[in-house]
Each structure stands twice: as C-alpha cells, then as structure tokens.
Amino acid sequence: MAYSFCGVATTILLALVLAIVPTVEGQKLLAPSDDSPEAEHMIVPNEPKSLDDCHFRYYEFGKKSINKPTFGVPAYLREFAHMAAIGWTQPDKTVLWNCGGSLISERFVLTAAHCAQRQEPDVVRLGDINLFNDTDDQYAQQIRIAKFIANPSYSFLYEYHDIALLLLERKVVVHDTVAPACLWNDEEIRFTSLEATGWGAVGFVEGQTPTLLKVTLSPFEKDRCSNFIENNRRLPNGLDSNQMCAGDDKQDTCRGDSGGPLQVKLLHNTRVTPFIVAVTSFGRPCGQSVPGIYTRVAPYISWIQSTLKEWGEDEWLLQPQACARKYVELREYEPRVQLKKIGSQQQLDMTKAHLFSDSSRQLVEIHWESLRVNSSNECYGVIIDESTVLTLARCTMGINGMEPTHVTFVGNKTHIITHRYKHPNYEESSFRNDIGVLKVKEPFEFNADFTPACVWTKNTYLEPEMEVTGRGLLELNRLYTEAAPEIDRTSLTNTVDVLGIVMEQNGTNCSLPKQYTERLPSGLSQEHVCFGAEPFLVPSTCSQAFGGPLQREVFRYGRSLMYVNALNLFGRDCGFGESAVAVRPAHHRNWLESVLYPPKETEIVYKRQPVTFLHEGLEEGDNCTAPNGLPGVCVNYMYCPKVTHDGLRGREVKFCETGSLVCCPHRNIRYATNSDAEEIDSCERNQDTSSDEEEGSGETSSASLSHVVPIVWRNGREERVCIGTIVSSRIVLTAASCLHASKLPSEVELRIGMSTGRLQFIAGEVIVHPEFDNTSKKHNLALIKMKDTRNEEQLGQSRACLWRNSTHTPLMIDQLVLVDRTFKTKEAHLKFNTDCRRAFRRVLSASELCLKVDDLDEEPVLIDDGMPAFWSKRDGGYLVGIVSHRSSVSDRSIVRYTRLSSYIDWIKSEL
Ligand SMILES: *[C@@H]1O[C@H](CO)[C@@H](O)[C@H](O)[C@H]1NC(C)=O
Ligand SMILES: *[C@@H]1O[C@H](CO)[C@@H](O)[C@H](O)[C@H]1NC(C)=O
Ligand SMILES: *[C@@H]1O[C@H](CO)[C@@H](O)[C@H](O)[C@H]1NC(C)=O
Ligand SMILES: *[C@@H]1O[C@H](CO)[C@@H](O)[C@H](O)[C@H]1NC(C)=O
Ligand SMILES: *[C@@H]1O[C@H](CO)[C@@H](O)[C@H](O)[C@H]1NC(C)=O
Ligand SMILES: *[C@@H]1O[C@H](CO)[C@@H](O)[C@H](O)[C@H]1NC(C)=O
Ligand SMILES: *[C@@H]1O[C@H](CO)[C@@H](O)[C@H](O)[C@H]1NC(C)=O
Ligand SMILES: *[C@@H]1O[C@H](CO)[C@@H](O)[C@H](O)[C@H]1NC(C)=O
C-alpha cells in the first residue's frame, strides 16, 4: 500500500534563521541607469514637447541615490510540517506506518479512504522526518486516532471518492515542525508542477527509505491516463471529474504514500504555505514511469467543512486566505529572501521579497460619481504630469451613460476629471489599443515624495525586472517577523495597495491563463508586454490594478525618477504563477504626444507677425520711412539687428524691394565692421577652441567669476551697487530693475579687477531695454556701455559668452549668489516655463527663464536682480540668464530670469 520514491529525493532541513534587524521596510528595485550623458552636458529644449522631456521636467524631485535596507528574522521552520505518518500498532507494540496523510486542522488529518480497507489505523505521527531514527524525535508528536471518517460516497469496491478524515484524540501542539496545511478549493488546477511527499517503502522493507522524500510531478490530461486504467474493475466509469492524474515524463518515479498529499506551495507574506491539491489514491508499482491517480480536494471542501464543524473545529480556517494567514509565522520564507545558509542558520534579505504592501505614488483610482462601481469595472491610472493621468481606453469611457468623474490618489485626495481621451482605434472589450488619457482640473502638486511617473518611450527596458501595481488583502501582504496577531473574519476584508516584483516574459516564457488566450485570436502584438513571476500566490494576495503602472525607477543625469513601462491590461494574481499582460505606452507614443502636446497658440501667433511691404521699387540705399515715422534707409537686414529683434517680438517691420531689404532707422544701421557685434558673435568660436585644448584637464575647475563686476552709482549720499556681467570688451549686462530701484542713473561706475585685487573704476553709460516693465519685470535688461576704451583688453579677457541657442538651454546652470559678502555659485537646474506658472502666478514668456536653485537653506544666501546664471561647462562660461525677479511667491528657490538668447539682437542693435 505504500510505494517508494525511485527518483530525485530531497531531505528536509530544519533551518534556524538568524536575526539581524527587526524592522521591515519597502523593497526597492535598484534604479538602473542608461547611457545618458552627464547632467552638466545636457542641453534641454525650452518647452516640453515630447514624452522624453519628463526627466528634465521633474528633475528637482529626483532622488540622488537609493537606499536598500536589509534585515533578517529568527525561526525554526520545516518544509512539510503537515506531513503525517499513519500507523497500525501491531500486537508486539511496533507500528506499521503504511499510509500518509496531511494535517489540515489542529485535530484532523486528511488521507485516502482506502487506507482503512483492511483495518482502520490507530495512530498518527507528526513532526518526524526519519521514522526509524530517534535523533530527530525531539519534535515528533504521536497521537492516537479517535475516529476514521471515510467520505460517505466511498465504497471499498471502487476507487471513486477515495478520501477520508482522521479525527485525533487530542489537538496537536502547533509548532514550527507541526502545522496544518491549507486546501486548494478552486476546481481549476492552474499549476504546471506539483509536489508529492511520502516515506516511500516503509512497511515493506524496513530501513530502505525511512526518510521523508519529495518528488515533483506534472498534472496530465485525462486521456493520457486512460491507458493505464483500462479494464480496472474498480473504475467502471473510467476516471471521474473528481480525480486527476499526475506523473513525471523524465524521471522514473513513483508517487507518494497512499493518502499522502499532492501539493503546491503558495506565496503570501513573503512565506510559502503548502496547499493540498489532491490526495494520493492509487497507481502502478515503481519503475514504470506511469502516472498516479489522485483524489482532488476541491470537490470535497463542503464535506470536509461540515465534518470539521460537526466536531467543533472552526471550519472558517479552511478558507485559503484564513488558513494561510493563521499559521503564517510557522511557514518557510520564500527562497528569494533566503540569503545564505550557514549550517543550521539562515540569513534573510527581506528587500528581495516578491510582494510588498506599498503604494505606487503615481497610482490613481478612477471613479464614476454616484455609481457603486462593480469590481469588474475597477479602474486605475498613473499620474504622468501635473494634469494628466494615463490609463486604459476602457477606463475613460462611460458606464451606463456615466462618464468617469474623478480620481483619488495618495492620501485620499480627489481631483475632478475635465477631459477624457481614448485611443481612436480602440474597440470595446478588445485588448488592442486599450490606452487613454484623463485630464484633471486642479494640478497635482508635486514634491520629493510625490512625483509623477515619466513614460518610458523606448521599445526595450533597461532591466527585465519591474514592479507591478496591484491590490490585495492586507493580512496576506504584511511582513511578519515575529508572532503574527490572531485574525478573525473581519480582518480579511481590508485591502491594500501591493507592489510585486515581476519579470518581462516575452517569447516562450509567456504562459497566459486560457480564459485570456481565447480572447486573443491573433495572439499578443508589439504593444503588449507579457510579464510575471514564478511562484503562485494564495488567491487574493495580489490582483492587478488595471490601468495602473508596471513601473521602475530609472537613474539619469544624476537623479532617479519613476518610470511607467506599461499599464496593467489583463491577467490574474499580478502575473504570479501564470503570465499577465500590460500595454506599452511607448507603442502609442505618437497618439499620446498629439494629445499631450497640441500645437501651442503662441506658435500660431508667431506665424502671423505683422509684416509690411513698403514700396516694391525701393532698392538698397534708398530713403524710406520706418515704423513710427522714423526716417530710414533700405539696407540688408543683417545691417539692422533692431529689425530682426522687432520682428521676433511681433512688432511691425517694413521691407523694401525684397524680403532681405528692410527699412532701417538711421541710428540703428550697423555695418559689418561693428567690432562689438562681431566680438559677441565670435565669442563661442573662440571659447570652443580653448575648451578643446583644456580637454583632459579633468573636472571643471570651480567656475571662474572674472566676468562678474559690481556696478556702482550714487543716490544722494548713498552708494548703490548692482551686479553686472561682462559680455564684451565694451559691454556689461545687468537687470534694469536693479538700476531702476530709485531713480535711473545715467552713468555708473564699474569696479573691475576684483579678482586680481587691482581695482579700477570705469564710467559707463546706461541703456535700459525700451520695453522694460517695472511691474511685470518683463524685458528686465540693461546694458552698460563703457565710455573709456583703455580697459578693453582686460574686459575682453574676462567676458562671458552669451548663450545664443533660442530653442534649447543647458540643464545644469550655476547661479551667482552672495554669501556673507562673498560671491559663490549654487547649482541650479532648468525648469520649463510652463511649470513655473504657479510660482509666479502668470505665464512666463519665451524671453523669460525659470530655474530652481538648490541648497538655499544651508546658509543665508542673497540672490538679487541682475545676478547672472551661467553654464560653466566651458571656461569663462555662457551667460544664460540674468535674475529679473528674485523669487517666487511660494518657493524662494524658484527664480525668474531674463533669458539672454532672446535679446542678442537688441544687444547688438544698441552697440
Ligand atoms: C540517525 O541519524 C543520524 C544522523 O543523521 C545518524 O548518524 C545515525 O546513524 C542514524 N541512526 C540510525 C539507526 O539510522
Ligand atoms: C458585477 O458585474 C458582473 C459582470 O459585469 C455581474 O455578473 C455582477 O453581478 C455584478 N455585481 C454587482 C454587485 O453588481
Ligand atoms: C482614506 O479613506 C478611507 C475610507 O474612505 C480610510 O479608511 C483611510 O484611513 C483614509 N486614508 C487616509 C490616508 O486618509
Ligand atoms: C525579449 O527580452 C530579451 C531580454 O529582455 C531581449 O533580448 C529580446 O530582444 C526580447 N525579445 C522580444 C521579441 O521582444
Ligand atoms: C525563461 O524562464 C527561464 C526559467 O524561469 C529563465 O531561465 C529564462 O531566462 C527565461 N527566458 C527569458 C527570455 O526570459
Ligand atoms: C535721403 O534723405 C537724406 C536726409 O535724411 C537726404 O539728405 C538725401 O538727399 C535723401 N536721398 C534721396 C535719394 O532722396
Ligand atoms: C519698480 O518697482 C519697485 C517694486 O517692485 C519699486 O520699489 C520701484 O520704485 C519701482 N521703480 C520705478 C522706477 O517705478
Ligand atoms: C540648440 O541646441 C540643440 C540641442 O543641442 C540643437 O539641436 C540645435 O540645433 C541648437 N540650435 C541652434 C540654433 O544652435
């Protein structure tokens, strides 16, 4: 009646787990970094125009590094603590151990009904691995059987309903080595491999294999087993639906002891709990590679429940979730967290846990007002910028005519949905093009703990590992490192957000549950990502948040931000055990960008700037009347920088015969011989050469501040000072508001040579930008023109170049600050103007710039109008902006600037 294991066998270890730190923290995948250039080299577009700009946009919230916590816990654990040996006491007081069984409650053992065919057993032994060796007997519990309860439908004549319960005389003492297993109560057996355990040949040849062994088997289709059971008088109807067969193709194995379990270990709380799927019923002798026949447990659940109830046991504990949670601290840790074994001790790294009760900060839940949303309509999304939630197309649509109305996110906050977009090619209830966008009314207010997720726009991922967002029972997701508190029925109703570590499983590793493959006639396509993780879960441990992200932090340009790789589309148990599928936004990038970055109104206005053609007959050198009635001459536009400047501002420009001839007021004509303009234009070239020579000299030396110069003037008896920047041998730039503070001085004094200690005083003429507006601080720029030409050489050597690129700006910029009367620089980084709107309560124009200055809190720092912000990647640096407005209303680290690249033409026109 008992059979031996002839194949690969594993002895069971008693493991002592070592305690290190008793705290539990959320696990994190380490952020991989791609081959992006260093931050200092990055040049960024002025306005966000594509999904790729996200990392710059939210740079300030990025983390500079990621901490990875580790810890361990103590426990004595045994792999098959439910395994029972069932014995018959012989007249000579020895015991024949001829059947196996599984402890399923503290007083009941599940076994096969045929074990009592000749004589009922009378004793059960638990917690013993080697039945014939006393060295491991310290944990063994031998208990007499009070009652053998065969299933009422079982008959000794047939093999059907071969299942029975043993009532023990007393309760077992639950211990690390003796604990009930749980029951798989689902009719569907989704597992591709199962484990059978038993003592094998005990009872036949004493001493042959007295140690508990396990073997891995696969469930077989019924047809495949029919051959082996033909002409079996005990199976007149063949196998019935309550039976299953399982075997092993490769190994020459037998199944376990009669009555013993066919089981699977399911993951929850970072532990694995054995679940009994079936009871070993019968098979053929060993050595013939034939399947065994098993009685499935699921069809008998209600009989087991009522039997247990009848004898006063709490049948609620048979429920998979309750059972798993009840004995959680007695279960083994999942292999991933087991770091290493040293003898009987074990170290754990809980950060490697597959599942964790934690929220994605970017996850939102989508709601339909006044509609009690049925769980099948549960919809989630991911925040990707201040006003946008990315989700599935099906989550943007109406239910019974009701549109989704609002989203909730971290901390129960609610935002109203204003716009809904679904992919135009989405067809209802299909798995194709299932992607959509929701826009919310109030902007999300981000900070270092609440950032949006950037959209991963590449077709491949940096690492195959990522985090799936789901929800599950709180009680199955806590990490218990000590004794877990008792649970009751109410504690199994609380759900929490769950993050699971899954792998991309493209190609052959993708194994989808049948219910989904049937809905995918042509299989998965390029837009889909198949993902999953190996272990199966206790049901309700994790269910995908549909529309929620598959995410991963990515380290770029020195900061890490969260990325959304894909959106949960379908699957069960978060892809654990069997694969699940998500949709990749990267595949729908064009559609997404068309929704997120529609052409801007300003760009349209720009195209209809006023242009007036004057007299078609006028040629170069002819007199003409410029706008505002000023007398002028027709010249090539190159000789009239003012006109270019006006044109870009959208102001009236008059052309002569051709589009390249403009009517230029006399005083604005600048012929190519203008050495100042040339100096400004050629600055970049010169700098490039010098930087090439310095290549290899290592790190950028601390930025030279030789181009910074105090501008001094007297106001009554008071001396006032403003900071200027030398940009050519005759020109210094500063903010108009700084000079303007009381009464505009017509002449100022420059104190150059501060850095060399040879102070010189030079007089300069002040030219304020004609459109400067003291209220809005727009066009906040003043130009100081040197009157004395003797210092040109010295100034020329000190100057900074002007950043001339009008569409792109460096990401990392140095801000000049005053700390304790000393000039220093602080690192600052670009913010998109659109994202500074709230800080300044108005839309910044293209000729303004917005930066976030870091580390302002460390010391008393002064940032004043007129102070430069420059890119110091190259020697001398590029002047990018001049502070036009110290700080914003809400955050003093956000500073507004005059963007120099917009004023090149004005500067040249005033030379
Ligand atoms: C019992 O097990 C111990 C350790 O595995 C071994 O040294 C001893 O020989 C065994 N005794 C018997 C009777 O098998
Ligand atoms: C939820 O929806 C499913 C199918 O859409 C339906 O079978 C079920 O009855 C609904 N449940 C409730 C409580 O409305
Ligand atoms: C969110 O709301 C739920 C019930 O609506 C409540 O149980 C929970 O404590 C709230 N959480 C926070 C952080 O306010
Ligand atoms: C599958 O993933 C591997 C590694 O992640 C990658 O090398 C391979 O190109 C992928 N194949 C497909 C078809 O996406
Ligand atoms: C497929 O799964 C096997 C076993 O889990 C693993 O070794 C292999 O790397 C996986 N292949 C891919 C392409 O992910
Ligand atoms: C152009 O105007 C100037 C004075 O602004 C005048 O001296 C000159 O004669 C004019 N030339 C022609 C061709 O009309
Ligand atoms: C400019 O505005 C500031 C306040 O923003 C004020 O103190 C100053 O007097 C104004 N200057 C002029 C010339 O209006
Ligand atoms: C501005 O910089 C960007 C990025 O480096 C570059 O692609 C673009 O050509 C530059 N534009 C000009 C006018 O130099």
Automatic annotation (TrEMBL):
Gene3D superfamilies: Trypsin-like serine proteases (2.40.10.10). One of its GO terms (molecular function) is serine-type endopeptidase activity. It is found in: Secreted. One of its GO terms (cellular component) is extracellular region. Keywords: Disulfide bond, Glycoprotein, Hydrolase, Immunity, Innate immunity, Protease, Secreted, Serine protease, Signal. Residues 680-703 are annotated as: Disordered. InterPro entries: CLIP_Serine_Protease, Peptidase_S1_PA, Peptidase_S1_PA_chymotrypsin, Peptidase_S1A, Trypsin_dom, TRYPSIN_HIS, TRYPSIN_SER. The keyword Hydrolase applies. Residues 91-309, 341-597, 696-911 form the Peptidase S1 domain. It comes from the Eukaryota. SUPFAM superfamilies: Trypsin-like serine proteases (SSF50494). Residues 1-26 form the signal peptide. PROSITE patterns: TRYPSIN_DOM, TRYPSIN_HIS, TRYPSIN_SER. GO terms for biological process: innate immune response; proteolysis. Belongs to the peptidase S1 family. CLIP subfamily. This is Tryptase. It comes from Anopheles darlingi (Mosquito).
